Amino acid sequence: MSERRPGEIPEATVARLAVYLRVLTGLVDASTVTVSSEELATIAGVNSAKLRKDLSYLGSIGTRGVGYDVTVLREKIASSLGLTQRRTCVLVGIGNLGHALAGYSGFSSRGFTFVGYFDADPARVGEPIVDSRIRDIAELELVVKSHGVSIGVIATPAEAAQTVCERLVDAGVTSILNFAPSVLTVPDNVDVRKVDLAAEMQILSFHEHRKSRGLGNGLVESVG
Amino acid sequence: MSERRPGEIPEATVARLAVYLRVLTGLVDASTVTVSSEELATIAGVNSAKLRKDLSYLGSIGTRGVGYDVTVLREKIASSLGLTQRRTCVLVGIGNLGHALAGYSGFSSRGFTFVGYFDADPARVGEPIVDSRIRDIAELELVVKSHGVSIGVIATPAEAAQTVCERLVDAGVTSILNFAPSVLTVPDNVDVRKVDLAAEMQILSFHEHRKSRGLGNGLVESVG
DNA sequence: TTCACTTTGTGCCTGCGTTCACAAGCGGTT
DNA sequence: AACCGCTTGTGAACGCAGGCACAAAGTGAA
Ligand SMILES: NC(=O)c1ccc[n+]([C@@H]2O[C@H](COP(=O)([O-])OP(=O)(O)OC[C@H]3O[C@@H](n4cnc5c(N)ncnc54)[C@H](O)[C@@H]3O)[C@@H](O)[C@H]2O)c1
Ligand SMILES: NC(=O)c1ccc[n+]([C@@H]2O[C@H](COP(=O)([O-])OP(=O)(O)OC[C@H]3O[C@@H](n4cnc5c(N)ncnc54)[C@H](O)[C@@H]3O)[C@@H](O)[C@H]2O)c1
What we know:
The structure is a homodimer. Chain A has helices at 11-29, 37-44, 48-56, 70-80, 96-102, 105-109, 140-147, 158-171, 197-216, and strands spanning 34-35, 68-69, 87-92, 112-119, 128-129, 132-133, 135-136, 151-154, 175-178, 191-194. Chain A is an alpha/beta fold. In chain A, the strands form 3 sheets. A 6-stranded parallel β-sheet of chain A has the order 7-4-3-8-9-10, sandwiched between helices. A two-stranded antiparallel sheet of chain A has the order 1-2. In chain A, helix 1 (11-29) runs antiparallel to helix 4. The interface between A and B is large, with 69 and 69 residues. One nicotinamide-adenine-dinucleotide (NAD) sits between chains A (92-98, 118-121, 124, 137, 155-158, 160, 163-164, 179-181, 197) and B (100-101, 103-104, 106).
């Protein structure tokens, strides 16, 4: 019951693999050949035992007494994350944030290709963006189906997010990255990740509050 | 040893409180008076038992047989997150992403006031932004100290992030939100949260990969 | 081959987070 | 006042994640 099937990688590990991948790419650029778990862990800001356990889910990649071959490890992580094939994506809601995302080169360099930028505002449709033009949201299904798009990014206002999400899912998208502050309801086979910036700020606010409460005295605020 | 001091709220709970707060604000706007844990949990997309346990860390707020008073609960969560006082913030790196963040009204409406927008590029300094102007990074310490800034947001390229971070910390900032894909090293008393969009995409990619592997047959890829 | 040294891969323990399930408590009704 | 139905707050059980510590496995030298 506690056995983990080979190929089963814990969610927390997957999130860190992306970090290791970035660090390793930096090491490749610096022509580093091998790296120990201790070194890699320090750069990535994690515990070395945790790093080794993370990597062990990908198989036995390291060499005892030596460390990991940087190139081999990088390839192994990339393939585990499914990054050996480029992923096609669409971006919906080309406002303030959408423009910033569209202009970000980091997605393309990491294997993500945006094949369509959509907006509902007629005033925006047709406007040039990157090496393309903003399309009418009406064309969404067509583009998604013809390109076999797998990831949809939502950067519309919260009110529109659920509707856009449903159109994406109906068209065949099975992964969604949501920037709108709203909870999306999706079928089981669809993955959603949200980026909630206001929530991030509020979490920081909580810790600020906590720190400042501790300064004056040793007491905690009592209810009443 | 397993007792949790009153006022001690688990990290996972804090993250969800921000979500509940947003939902509750929506309910207040819709003039809803009371809400049960079941209803609130459904809207927030979580399990109702988890929601009740989360709220129980704030004290006994609900009324058995009835539910929670929407206004009271909202206030209680806001105060727990330290949102009764406005938090002053600075934004460093006014490029692509920085402009989007600066133009976002959601921060101000949730209690965060940006008192300075900084960039190192002389060509950008002086440019109007929101109701202010982009300042030279040289003025960072002055502004942080004079306003008692508590949260610093970094939207510079990765190479500059650690340096900017150190300047923020030295000036007195104790919470940092980092958009650059880099690991920041900070003293113990400083909190860092990172928003790694490329990593989010890669996590989705992993799940896409996983789903497509499962389609063809029941086997898992074996290590060659 | 044997030995000394290095670093991986992992068994085991501990602690956090999630979920179930139910006693306790409250409002409304008779 | 006594009862009923509803909902909260939480004890207890469970599963996931983190980290220590060490045996296993490799390299290189003698
Ligand atoms: N800008 C930020 O820094 C920031 C930060 C945090 C969260 N967000 C969230 O991200 C989302 C976008 O923010 P923004 O600042 O870019 O807003 P925005 O208003 O500038 O842009 C939203 C865009 O979505 C388009 N749109 C509206 N309904 C649509 C629909 N049904 N289909 C397609 N497009 C539609 C609008 O025409 C507009 O161009 C919002 O939900 C916001 O809360 C933004
Ligand atoms: N744009 C996006 O959608 C996006 C997405 C994911 C991650 N990011 C990350 O966010 C960061 C910013 O992205 P961007 O697209 O806005 O880049 P950008 O190049 O458009 O902007 C970076 C800005 O930082 C300024 N800067 C550089 N060094 C500085 C310093 N030492 N002090 C102050 N300012 C300095 C530059 O002058 C520039 O204006 C990058 O690290 C990027 O990887 C951006």
